[in-house]
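Contributing new complexes? Match this layout with protoporphyrin IX containing FE.
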Amino acid sequence: MENLYKLYEGKPFVGFWRFRTPGLLIRDPEVTKTVLLQEFNSFQQNGFRVHPELDPLVHKNPFMLTGEEWKTTRQTLTPSFTNSKLKPLLPLMEEVAAELVQYLRANCHTCGPDGFDAKDLCSKYTMEVVATSAFGIKGHSFQNPKAELREMTMQLLQPGLKKSIELMLINFLPSLADLLKLRMMPVEVDQYFRGVVRTVVDEREKKNITRNDFMQNLINLKKKAVENGETYSDEDITAHAVTFMTDGFETSAIIMSFILHELARHPDVQEELRQEVVAARGANGGRLPFEVLLELPLLDQVIHETLRLHPALPAMEKVCTRAISLRAADGTELHVPKGQLVILPVLGFHKDPRYFHDPERFDPDRFSPGRKSDIPKYMFLGFGGGPRQCLGMRFALQQTKLAIATMVAHFVIKATPKTPEVVEQDPTSFLACAKGGLWVRFEERQTSL
Ligand code: HEM
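Output block (do not edit by hand):
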């Protein structure tokens, strides 16, 4: 999509074919705002669908839902992502960050000249954070690369060849996929997650345990629904915990690995960030309290600039649900019929010199308080935009900030011979994925406040 975006400079709309489906690429900020916000009701469906009966746990993910079902689910889950619910998760995340430091200390001298595959490393951390926050369990990712929770989640997120072909059919030839009863989540993964949730819920109910986590919020939602004579089933609890797992684990690992890559390639920014983190830890007894962590300015800018250069979702797909006329800034008008696939080229916008000067340059200062208002609205779409903007954004920022701050406080992150100069996107991946991986090495620092 980035190439198509560049090829049609000056045009607000570009038509293309994806297999037998016509697609519409948007190249205009005004139209992007119209699609995401002003005419949201005409574009409220994401370009993915799963069969509600064959794939109930995936279908209940807000990302897949539309209409009233989407609205109710989003309203139900939103309170779990407010600061008052996220703050109590910090001690759980800190335990995982301490495990990450231990793991790096134990392995940084023996990992060889190429260092660590940053994505693999970060996904151990995000898997454990999500496991403890969403399911209230440990995933044992640092100890065992083949741990069951990780293996089951990976079956969903990095499917093998046969499953990938099935997924293509589900997306591009849905009627054939329905006929063949193809499902996105393998049966054994579905059964596994239902079993995990049943065990956790039973144990908490039997032993009257309450814990400050997402699972507790879901259990409380069920209790409230029962009191009000409404339905909130065990399947709903499982589906929403799985949403947390699938949406929260991989995307955050991707962005963290790109941050490590950029910090290794920009030691000056890394050093400035270290000073910011070390000073804040020093002023708070060696910890970063919730409010302090969220407010560290350079840390926030580094994350946003990395998301600009390497958005986890390089393009967003929407489907027109109500025919509409779109008008671009240059006056071009286009009739968009119901059912039309519409693509918002996130990476194209993020690398367009009209919106981001010298776009290939890693420049966290673009997101500084004095400059970020220069970025046109809806041209930075790292977390999407409008009513469907990423539901887990605050959680993602919290876990990412804690991991990066902890790593720079304890280690110097360095490039290795395998660290790519220019990151090449793997064209087969729907999420951002660097061809050949992102490799970095860690040197332990003497002082670690
Ligand atoms: C750095 C990490 C993350 C990135 C870059 C990211 C990015 C995105 C993007 C681009 C969208 C589409 C937004 C749109 O259509 O406008 C999205 C949707 C969503 N994200 Fe995230 N996400 C991240 C982490 C998370 C986490 C941690 C969770 C949950 C714990 C989460 C849950 C969701 C959900 C439920 C949706 C669908 C929202 C809806 O359609 O109403 N995400 N995310």
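Reviewers usually confirm one structural detail per submission. For this one: The chain has a mean pLDDT of 91.
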